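Hey, does this match?
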Amino acid sequence: MAVNVVGGPNANGRPNKKNKTGNSKVLGWLSPWFNVENVMGGKQFPVKYIDGSLFLLCLGLIMVFCRINAERQMRQLRKSNEEVNNLRAEYTILKANYMKMGKQSELAPKVEVFGIKESRKTPQRIVVEE
């Protein structure tokens, strides 16, 4: 039966490794590949603040990204609104022109070219008697 002992061997029979980098998890992950403590200044540098500072750095980068994204979307929204307003104005102008072209006073001179003339007689009612 296994017995838990502080600093003793774990379930694999190997001794527990202690974090050489103090309280920093990030430096604990990076220390097998890079000699981070010597680059940072050895024991003189307070490594316990690196995790918090990296977390704040990541939050700052996320905030900058979100702000840039929001400004880009606002520019696109302004551009789209301007385009919609231009299309709406163009639609209104075309609609007014088509309504004007459909009036009898506008059509009469155009169809006289084909020999069609406006009738001057008043309309008559047709009555059918049974």
